[in-house]
Design goal:
mainly alpha; two-stranded antiparallel sheet; rod-shaped
């Protein structure tokens, strides 16, 4: 009975150790990805800004901007004026 109890405690201890190590690895991976996520947010904000300005130019009659907006629309990409996520894909 004593050996069974020691075996169970050892098994539970090893599992706890492994879970703790995996948890710390997941936290480290998430921290490593944080920089990439921040860069992606900055690029997305720049893209939204460019799309907004292109739409404004197209609405003011700029033929080049109108052609760009038209091509984006053909590909299923819409530009929503004045919203946080200005560029969206529709299908």
């Amino acid at each position: 009975m004593f050996l069974l109890a020691v075996a169970m405690l050892t098994s539970l201890g090893l599992q706890t150790f492994q879970l703790g190590r995996e948890r710390s690895n997941l936290h480290r991976i998430r921290e490593d990805q944080e920089n990439t996520m921040q860069q992606a947010k900055r690029v997305r904000a720049q893209l939204d800004s460019i799309a907004q300005r292109t739409l404004e130019l197209a609405q003011q009659g700029n033929p080049g901007a109108a052609a760009i907006v038209e091509q984006l629309a053909r590909r299923g990409i819409t530009i929503n004026p004045g919203s946080a996520g200005a560029v969206g894909q529709t299908k």
